[in-house]
Specification:
This protein is an alpha/beta fold. Helix content is about 50%, strand content about 15%. The model has no long low-confidence stretch (mean pLDDT about 95).
Amino acid sequence: MFRRVAVLGLGLLGGSLCRALKETDSSVDITAFARDVARLSSALADGTIGRALPLDELSPAGMDLVVIASPVLSSIDSLKRLLDHPDLGDCVVIDVGSVKGPLVGLAAAHAHGGRFVGCHPMAGSEQSGYEHSSGSLYRGASVIITPHEKNGETIIAAVERFWESVGSRTVRCDAQAHDRLVALTSHVPHLVACAVADLVADASTGTDAAPFIGSGFRDLTRIAMGSPDMWTDIAAANGGNIVGGIDELIGKLEYIRRFITEEGHDVDGRRFLERARAFRRSIG
């Protein structure tokens, strides 16, 4: 297993992974890189990481594994720096982002791209920052692995074992298929949550909306509290798939409008609601 690990970015995902690694094996040596090294002080103080270095000093030298845990657009820049680095050697590079196409595409076209394996842990929350990280975040979570043609089976299997060591389940998927599906299961829902929150914000101007808000609204819009910076990056990196998902959603909303407003469509409406309920129940 990987003994010397570097992590780029120590927010919720990067910080939780470092905590999980230390809880699994306290002897793992972890170095963290960040644009603002001062933001790594808590992780140094509690012993989660052994060294804190500025991102300008990013190097895979002496590392077994580098984990890119930053917003997707900056992750692309970091991946290129790592693959271009003369000391890359046998180091394995992975990421934790929710958009895979741009990074996998870069790696597939790079001479040393076989050292990168795309990863997307289906874990997280509306909270951000190291202060919200937890060593249990990845336990029981699915991690989508998106191999490409330059990856050998040995490196893919090693990455799978790595995620399994912190309690995750792994699933392999093509990067393009991943991005299409995650647009529907994660990216569009986040933007819908934001739209619903904004809808009520507009409607409640001059009125205290709090007494009118129940658990349904809170459950639906919880994810709207996520980092705007991170979600702006995601929208830019997976825009085509997100727009396609929005178009499909508009079609669903138009269907709902019809069965509400047109006579004789109440049976169709019930079938629609029953199908949606059955699917949601099937996934737990």
